[in-house]
Amino acid sequence: MKGETLKTSDFDFDLPAELIAQDPLADRSASRLLVLDKNTGETKHESFKNIIDYLNPGDCLVLNNTRVLPARLHGVREGTGASIEVLLLKRKEKDVWETLVKPGKKAKPGTVLCFGEGLLKGEVLEILEEGNRLIRFQYEGIFEEVLDRLGEMPLPPYITHKLEDKNRYQTVYAKYDGSAAAPTAGLHFTRELLDEIERKGVRLAYVTLHVGLGTFRPVKAEVITEHHMHCESYQISAQAANLINETKKSGRRVICVGTTSCRTLESAADERGLVEECCGDTEIFIYPGYRFKVLDALITNFHLPESTLVMLVSALAGRENVLRAYQEAVKERYRFFSFGDAMLVI
Description:
Layout: E1 32-36, E2 43-47, E3 60-64, E4 66-68, E5 72-77, E6 83-93, E7 96-102, E8 112-115, E9 120-127, E10 133-139, H1 143-150, E11 176-179, H2 191-199, E12 203-209, E13 232-236, H3 238-249, E14 254-257, H4 259-268, E15 278-282, E16 297-301, H5 308-317, H6 319-331, E17 342-345
Parallel strand pairs: 1-17, 3-12, 3-14, 4-11, 14-16
Antiparallel strand pairs: 1-2, 5-6, 5-8, 6-7, 7-10, 8-9, 9-10, 12-13, 13-15, 16-17
Helix pairs in contact: 5-6
């Protein structure tokens, strides 16, 4: 099927609600792993710990080292005391953020919001096109420390349980603040497993893409090519670029951990599949028919029906293969979505 004729409904599947993982496992790497051969559609069932058996010396594992901000704030409107919730989406300048405010109707320009009994205050500056608000924050000290004290992790809407440990919605290699959601494929790795992978001769390249909440936005267009992707910022260091390019030139595999790492590389690569040190914004939309320039294999979680993420995986392994693998995962009672099990597409 060509992209022009693909419909959003072509990427639908039935998922029992009880298979949506509500809590992270005690041991990150104890999750299950479904291995999908992108050429034949054959599947194998593994433990995530055994992923090392599918990695070869000289391969390059590309990981997204963004950190999730505890970006959900609960506060009140100054003057009325009415409850309000603010979700930080993107920093525009030092203390000015694009945010999502609920309820939004009363958050007009000039409205002052108060959090943590005044530890943090925010003034609504402007209402943007999609209804998001620009807010300038006032505080004493360091913003990230204030946020860490007052904010909650912005868990996806399908997770209803309270997260006891904020760090479980971070990868063990998270470094640079900026995401509104975790790059969840990386949640399965422990530091010990990464060390073991490196000892095998697999190289680790770290890139940064700050994940926006648009990653959960449903595709409302009937024909997928009419969907407009949200914009996210990324950065590739000289060290990461060199590792990736050396791997490509030596004929070894570049294996992306998560769709965010994949979109970073595919956005930055030239037609030869090589990347340079760079930073930028991407709105890349990868769906069947796309020709991958860098990526050879992908480690990813199980994604929402009709999502752009299922479409990306289908671009790599074929829609029929992916939907058949998802059907098998449902039958085998795999855990789905952010805190769920993983898939390796090779």
